[in-house]
User: Fold Receptor-like serine/threonine-protein kinase from Rhynchospora breviuscula.
Amino acid sequence: MLLFPCLISCLLLALVPLQLQAQTTTATHNITVGSVLNSAGPNISWLSPSGEFAFGFRAVDGNASEFLLAIWFVNTADRTTAWYVNGGKPAPIGSTLQFTSFGLSLKNSAGQETWSAGANGVVYAAMLDTGNFALYNSSGKPIWQSFDNPSDTILPTQVLQLGSYLKSRLMATDYTTGRFILRVQDDGNLVFYTIPLVSDNQYSPYWASNTVGNGTKLVFNETGNIYFVLKNSTFDVTFGQLNTPSDFYQRATLDYDGVFRQYVHPKRSSTSARGGWSDSWTVVDLLPENICDNGGSNDGSGICSFNSYCKLNSNNSVDCECPPNYSFLDPNRKYKGCTPDFSPQSCKLDESDQFEFLSISNLDWKLADYEWYYSVDEDTCRQQCLNDCFCSVVVFNQGNCWKKKIPLSNGRMGDFVDRTLLLKVPKNNSTQIQIHKDNGWKKDKKVWILTGSLLLGSSVFVNVLLILVVVLGTHYYQKKNMKGISQQKQTCLSALGQSPLSFNYKELESSTNEFSEEVGHGGSGVVYKGYIHQHERETMFIAVKKMDTQVLSNTEKEYTTEVQTIGQTFHRNLVRLLGFCNEGPHRLLVFEFMNNGSLNSWLLNGTIKPSWNQRFQVALGIARGLLYLHEECSTQIIHCDMKPQNILLDDNLTPKISDFGLAKLLKTDQTRTNTGIRGTKGYVAPEWFKNVGITSKVDVYSFGVILLEIVCCRRNVDQDIEDEEQVVLAYWVNDCYRDRRLGLVLPTWDEEAARDMRRVERFVKVALWCIQEEPSLRPTMLKVTQMLDGAVDIPIPPDPSSYISSIQ
Assistant:
């Protein structure tokens, strides 16, 4: 009797997927206003006329409770996704997509809108056979289309205009935003970047077309050729051209491993395409060809994450691997990196005899160097690493010795890497190295005392004696471990945690030709140009900041602050601290050299007219640098002296924030600090003059003033201007904004900015928000970057009525 109901239930369950499939096979040409899709059915998608593409809800990796609003290939075996919304964030079951005269509105099961697209005046929509979903007005012109808002994939006939980008997904089956971005930049350059998961900050490029000022758009034509259109020619990106393109599905995807791959898939209806082609997606071209070789960067973790390395397999797929004695934090999510399977060498005890080296060929982590020796032999190189508890890897090559520390970044392996690494690991026969959650002396002491108590029983006298032996022994080991390390090195190592290079005074005196070429000066010292030798006999120019010893009490504090602050930061928009000297009365800092000088000299140099495109890219870079300091460092850093003189420009006009002598560090549970007045007149926030706590909003205020200077290409206060209304830039810009005369604040020669008044107005509105007198009204730097990028709408800023007192 029970068999028949069970058969009925099974048949009903079997019919469910067939019913859902039938619901997605109703070809729809024009979709009318008022149509609705529901992830729970009965209508879950709209098809293109040929039935080859669908737009609607599809389950995420077979999960019946989470759905993507997406476009996909209907007739491929895996129904490959070509487009998706909302950064790949899944929508719960019960979510709906409503099509109104304002466009598309995605709402969750509670009726809250989570995504929208379109504009007023939409009359109908269509899912096209090209894979493009479009909204049209009464004239039949598209108001919005998916081709203009790509996710990680482009299709034939699709064009990426200047300002467009693709973002990779996190993993093959995780559609949330990943670690790579392809940008068709406004400056005409096609660039691939790595990005951190927490923000859109871009690290250094790992591939670029180098077509600044020349590129116009990226095109994927119907025959399968992908090329970058230049003003006078084209630049081929891939060469996957097909003789019979109509017999194949095509796509090009920025994959989750950072490689831009072009794929083809034979259509089931085609017989001519079947010969020699498998019934799956086949890679016909890719860029870059060897991402592990080309994927070098000057910041970030690299193509793979920290302590792992990038290796290209025979089928051109990227594999991230851990070195011996290291394991992935999460084997299913390798982007999280690797961690040692052993306790690091103690800095409190002498454990140098308990470690050895594994030799690994063709492997390097290019950004992990922190100390270099020359004219040494291999035994000395090994011993230097064994005696240094920070050292995890050492490289010896023709008398040169480089020490590297954890976290190891930008790792890569292959024949193109002419290196042999010596990886420091515990000896196999060592029984004394223990893995502790806390490597500090307090934890070790407790473990030793407990172990001794258990071994020696309840004898109070013996246990007390054991404790004394442990304490005295530890004191001896600490003295022995520090023997030979100068006092100034101990101080700087303590301040840095992970130290840059340590120079002696004579080295820096020689590298600067006895401090002969001055390139800048400030209240705490003078900056000189010099050079050092890098790997493979390369020469690198450096900037050496020599602190003024005549005001030693002040400069000593600023020196310590600057070393401690910038020594623990690493970002493409911060000046990199290469090393320091703390020898006797000498206090020096060594930075990377910036050929284009300061933002102040670049903006106000009468012979140079910085283009509008260059200026807004500089503004974005400064904002991202401040965002890193405020929200992405383990310890929040308030710069306290943001001004154009403290922003330097490299060869590519990438802005880098410098001069951290006045910076303040906040603990993770601290939001404000009390301190004396700091900064430079004209850029100081009003709260400095009040008896209130200082927050990161003081930097936001200074950035607002700098942003106005960048837009208008002039000083924030210019007493040489005859018109009194224009002397104070903030007043002048605010008046022009309120009177709808923003064109007046632009340089007379800047036709490029005059043609881009929408962005000019956006930047001005952001600046006016930043210089509000009340700190709580100012946006955070995260909000600032989003507003500058155009990712969020900017409300009309309040009329700042009382900020002038602090600007003048």
Notes: The chain has 16 helices and 46 strands. Residues 637 and 665 are 5 Å apart (CA to CA).
